[in-house]
Amino acid sequence: MKIGIVCYPTFGGSGVLATELGKALANEGHEVHFITYQQPVRLNAFNANIFYHEVRVPTYPLFDYPPYELALASTMVDVIINHDLDLLHVHYAIPHASAAYMAKQIVKQKNGRNVPVITTLHGTDITLVGKDKTYEPVVTFSINESDAITAVSQNLREETYRFFDIRKEIEVIYNFVDVKRFDKKPLDAFRQVIAPDNEKILIHASNFRKVKRIDDVIKVFAKVQATIPSKLLMVGDGPERHAAEELCRQLGVDEQVRFLGKQEQMEDILAVSDVFLLPSEYESFGLAALEAMAARVVVISSNAGGLAEINIPGETGFLAEVGDTEAMSNYAIQLLSNPDYLAGMKEKAFQQACTFDISNIIPQYEKLYSRFCRMEPSK
Ligand code: GMT
């Protein structure tokens, strides 16, 4: 098949997932065309089946707001027609689903072809941005106009029906992880640099937005390190970073916390870590937590959104109410003070991640595509 993938090219979960999906489809022999405003961060190796089309948004003095969505729709039309795409798979509703609707209408008028559009909902496109009155009518319309809709968790499916008047079936296709990539031996030299006295290592990775509650990460860590010699790695960057660094100083843990910025080699960083903290206000799925589990890192998270669909309390980690930093730190102390308990849970976290392995999820997307395609999947 010839598949167009539209996504945000950044470190965010939806972009990571879409890029890994495209790479896996290309490895299966499909021709994959990424349509984005810059090279996706995880699209970092040559593959003969992968094509990248950059959306250029010309600037003009009249435009206070350059019309990205129009440039995107026009690029989609160009790629669909010139590369004879079988379908478009757009990740994140805003503005990708509405731009795809426009592109589909244009191609229909120009060529008489009805190009299927599949929309995958990821989370904040529904729960934060999408339900804002500014966008809601367009989001509802473009989801309903998609030929197929998928959500990355059961919780996100339910939330979408709750917030929007959706008249179509939303299928759940869970996010995935390439377990092979994350199942790595710890690099001793790296661990030695981070934790020279063999301290335990806690880690958090996100885009440091309010929804992630990174101040809770720092508060949990401050309590843990008062009892257990430990270090905290903060991976990523975003609007809350400055306040988080300030909180570290206020709580007197700044020497124990390292802000690593955006990192591509997450597998190496996770391989030396013991506990992943994800106290988010909402998380449709929590791809970062799944990647941690694939690296045998135990997850202590909030019970928000779809997190309970991946993190099984007492088995792969623990769940606590949003904001209950006391419970989260107690769980971490309990775990980190008992090496056998920690080792057993790390193994179970890994086993759970294997159920979300890429090899189990890609066929679900291929099956979905084949329902809409002019031809059977090429293998
Ligand atoms: O978490 C973010 O803020 C980034 C966001 C995105 O769209 O890139 O992540 C969402 O999609 C991920 C991939 O499906 C999910 O794993 C995240 O849970 C989800 N984030 C939220 O729901 C807050």
Give an overview in words.
With 379 residues, the protein is α/β, with parallel strands linked by helices. It folds into 2 domains: 2-175 and 358-370, 3-Layer(aba) Sandwich (Rossmann fold), CATH 3.40.50; 179-354, Rossmann fold, CATH 3.40.50.2000. It is built from 16 helices and 13 strands. The protein has helices at 13-27, 68-82, 93-111, 124-127, 136-145, 154-163, 179-182, 188-194, 214-227, 241-250, 266-271, 287-294, 307-310, 325-336, 339-355, 358-372, and strands at 2-6, 31-36, 50-54, 87-91, 117-121, 148-151, 170-172, 200-206, 230-236, 257-261, 275-278, 298-302, 317-320. A 7-stranded parallel beta sheet has the order 3-2-1-4-5-6-7, sandwiched between helices. Strands 10-9-8-11-12-13 form a 6-stranded parallel beta sheet, sandwiched between helices. β11, α12 (287-294) and β12 form a beta-alpha-beta unit. α3 crosses α5, α9 (214-227) runs parallel beside α10 and α12 (287-294) packs across α15 (339-355). The chain is elongated. The chain starts with a strand and ends in a 7-residue tail after the last helix. The model is unreliable at 375-379 (pLDDT under 50). The site of ligand GMT has 20 residues, from α1.
Q: Just name the CATH architecture of the largest domain.
A: 3-Layer(aba) Sandwich
Q: Major sheet, described briefly?
A: 7 strands, parallel
What ligands are attached or bound here?
A: ligand GMT
Segments where pLDDT lies below 50 for 5+ residues? Answer: 375-379
The number of distinct β-strands equals: 13
The percent of residues in helical segments reads 40-55%
| Fold-level CATH name of the largest domain | Rossmann fold
Distance between the termini: 9 Å
SS strand fraction: 15-25%
Order of adjacent strands in the largest pleated sheet: 3-2-1-4-5-6-7
- The CATH superfamily of the largest domain is Glycogen Phosphorylase B
Mean of all residue-level pLDDT scores: 95
List the domain count as a whole number.
2
CATH class of the largest domain: Alpha Beta
Instruction: Return Rg in Å.
Output: 21 Å
